[in-house]
Amino acid sequence: PPEQYGYAPDRSDGSGSGYSTQSYNSSTTITSDRDADGSAKPCCDSNSTDRATPSARTHRVVIEFSTKIVQNEYIVQFNGYYKPKERESFIHSALNGSKVQKWRILPRNNPAQDFPSDFDVLALEEVIEYADDGLALLRTHPSIRSISPQRMVHRALKYVPLRQSDIGSDAIQQEKDEEEEMEPPEPDLDLDDPETNDFIEFIQKRRLTTEDESVAQPQPPPPPPPPAQSPNRHTNRRLLRAIPRQITALLKADVLWDMGITGQGVKVAVFDTGLAKSHPHFKRIKERTNWTNEKTLDDGVSHGTFVAGIIASSQECLGFAPDAELHIFRVFTNNQVSYTSWFLDAFNYAILKKINVLNLSIGGPDFLDQPFVDKVLELSANRVIMVSAIGNDGPLYGTLNNPGDQMDVIGVGGMDYADNIAKFSSRGMTTWELPYGYGRLKPDIVTYGSQVKGSNLNGGCKSLSGTSVASPMVAGAVTLIASGVLDRPEVDLNPASMKQALIEGAQRLPDNNMFEQGHGKLNILRSMKALAAYRPRVTLSPAYLDFTEDYMWPYTTQSLYYSAVPVIANVTILNGMGVFGRVINRPTWHPYSNEHGELLNVSISYSEHLWPWSGWMAVHIGVNEAGRGFEGIAQGHITLTVQSPAQGGNEREPRNGTVSFAIKVRIIPQPPRQKRILWDQYHSLRYPPGYLPRDNLKIKSDPLDWRADHVHTNFKDMYTHLRNAGYYVEVLGAPYTCFNASHYGTLLVVDPEEEFFPAEIAKLREDVLDRQLSVIVFADWYNTSVMRRIKFYDENTRQWWMPDTGGANVPALNDLLRGFGIALGDRVADGYFDMRDHRMYYASGANIVRFPVGEGTIVVERELLDEGLTITQPDKPRSKVRTRTAILGMLQTDRRVYARLQPATPNPEGPSPPDELPDEVEEDGRKIGREAIINKRMLLSAAGGGDVEEDEEIPNDGGELNRDDAANRVDAGEEPLLEDDRDVDDLGQLLRERTKAAKQHNSTATRTASSRPEVAGGRIALYGDSNCLDSTHLEKPCFWLLDSLLEYTMTAHVTGLLRDLNVSRQLEQIEENVKLPQRMPNNNLHLYSKVLVPHTTTGEKRPIPVCQRLEWEHPVTLNMSSFGTGPNDRLFVQQEQQQQHLLVVQQRQLKQGPPQPIMPLVGNELVYSSRGRRLESQKGALVTRFM
Asked: What's the pTM value of the predicted model, to 2 decimals?
């Protein structure tokens, strides 16, 4: 959707009938006044005037984006480029004979209207039923590729003055510095800089080889030097925080200018708000085109002027490529409105004009906007080097914007002048690949994006901040260095070779990881040097994997061990040899015999075709049984060969390129299950593809749940806390039938939106009761009345845009927990409260309405507000009445005595253990009560000690996971077995009977010292709100509560705080006359669910997927003891022995038959095959995680 351009959906007041409305807000802090003309500042920027003045006020800029789906307008994409009459005939043929009579093709009055196109904008002015029939017919036409809604985008800014108390000390000190120094000093060029001298010498040597072969051409004069500095200038002691007068000098662009390299001959396109033809800063505006519905080419906002100035200004605030050929595409109106079709037409025109570099200072979370993503791929295939901002949604992880997160695009992040990643800059990983796999490395590169000077609307300069500033800096640098190789035909200039040069030249920042900085800070001279010496080749991003290097977060945070879920590295293959390529033979795994490489199992999958200019390789790494007790480092490398067709008339043989991917893994002995947590990723859904509402309903500025809910994205702080506490966290990207419960102490289920398979429900019950697996659930709100109230569209809008679940899928959670007598309600609870010394905030959480009773069962209640009534009845005045709400429940299960809880205190009757224990002992810096120690010993004894016996049916070899009997029964067509056939409503009486029997049994059993203690089941803990773990809008973290619940689930110890908060109850039904929440009628969760059958409204579920077994690569062992350990040394060894090992590999393949790699889950469209379910398209590098 047009959220593609940076805008996420929500309702917007005053949208008017006929439009569906979506909005997205963010904010940053600036020191600025508005422009004199009062114009609003554009997307994602914080603004300041050219010179700070003591009277300038400090503001917070609130950036508001809204998108509207235009009623009855659709983008019809064809499978080729056709003239208008041909396109009309296709549509007429598809709709001929249907009920659709009122349809028309909307005219597009822009420079591309007379050229063949691959899409039309169609208006269907029919009732919804007829329109749906017409759309279905259009989709069946052989010349029509897809149908998408037409969307309008609007963006605006508000300036909110900050109180003095809100202004940080750094901002105040910076203002004082600016008062002392009105114009910060311009960084001087260091004539003794080794990097500069080395670069000059390199370029001069290369030019000597070509000067005699070419006619000397007059070089364009360099841009005018900046004004000389006054000798009386005050020198700021904090130069790194100062704003340099010329950002080009800071990045040494002037070194290239002095050599006559100024951007000449390169066509660069700026997609933005336009540019005035007479602006004094620009001397080579080749063409200006207008793609909006306004009759002007000029910029009325100033954003397009600023972006163009960073790239190519030749006056005052200098751009990087002043002699570049500027092509201005005005795609936003003065009111900052745009349409999807405007961008598609403009992109087609850019291809037609053979644009070399294209800058997009826009972006949004929607990476499944098919028309937009397809067109970006087409641009890259036509050698257009696209540079795009990575987004301003930092410092959260998993907040990358599209199209900057695509493989073929150069995604740019922002940093400050102290070489720190800017707080606003979005972080990786990409989230296309979840939940099956792992994200790609992005951003690609970072550069200055804070307080950068550029051209103002009518002349002069101003300062802006944001990744929309960093993006044109890289686009300008790309334009500049591209112009330096135009006279070298041997340099193949394409999107891959340019990205390879930028990556090779980047300088890594010491204090930031790869998902923050990508490959590092832009270095123009080093990248120019790399491009000048470039030869077509294949490279990888990242180039290697090292568990011992801090840059490689999160791999460095947790070692690998036997039986762990395999670690995944999602590697981007950059193919500079051609727009199309393929992997030949099969990648080969080379463990190092002298570096314990034989302890690693490696599985490799990869994209069948590399297009355009790129592909992906998924590397799964596990530890085999030989490494069960090993502690140390294991190493090896993978070799990969890519082949592309011959280029040009002089080449007859295809191009081959071989690359090496080094792997260095830290291995530890297998930890005990009481330290292992399994995070449920499989049941998390997010936008896109599903339109899922926010978890905290009060945060209206961020209406969508789009950050993936992964331990390395918005739950990163929680993950770090758990690792610091000594727990090991693994991620489950498959159904519950695909993991061995005997290895894990606790399954952590947080904010699930997905449904559960019946076999999952049955298997989890068996795991809890038979295998002592414990479960912690953090839920969220669910209320169908609230969902209808916050719907994204009015009654005239298509129904499938209605939110189809709440913050969490509570009806599905109730299905999962029904067998334990637990249920959540539909109250949307909100409010602050205390849990002894801990101040807590319940942010749109759910209430517990049913929970078992029994000795030691714990339920905590608090007085909270009903936020749902405020939303559903906004016009009714309502006092702040609080209702007693159950928010936390804790339950010990047992196979025979189901509801019996073994509490920490009081202890069971009977003799004390032989060894006397002190009342309190110190453990990990904490005081633990004597009763807790006894209880913990009982649990470990019941579980058979720290290492439980593995299920024979579920082998584990380096991460291989198989299913158990519950899943096999489903495959055999049998119903999952439940232990008790009684109705759930009779469960309360059953539990009371068992509790009474448990007391009698304990009185006898504990007197028999020689008898083995009764095997207890696992424990269940349920809390109704997940926002206290989610870093997205974290107000009051509850990591302490998570610690207490894990202590309970792992050891059965109940902390004194939670025990004291327990409320006394006689009935399982906590609230009377409460109906459990039901699923939204006619909801469309089935459209993007992995569990439900698509295009049905009955809630029918698919067959559960078969748990895939990884196929480990046949190792070709190398002894590296006589060689170096650097990447070049390893590649040399590989190249020396390649022919020898190639024969071995070919013989193995011939013996085994054709290779049958696991099928990667790639792209976006669901497809079935004999090997299981996969996602298929050319849109992304989705990496699989098969269990």
From this structure: 0.78
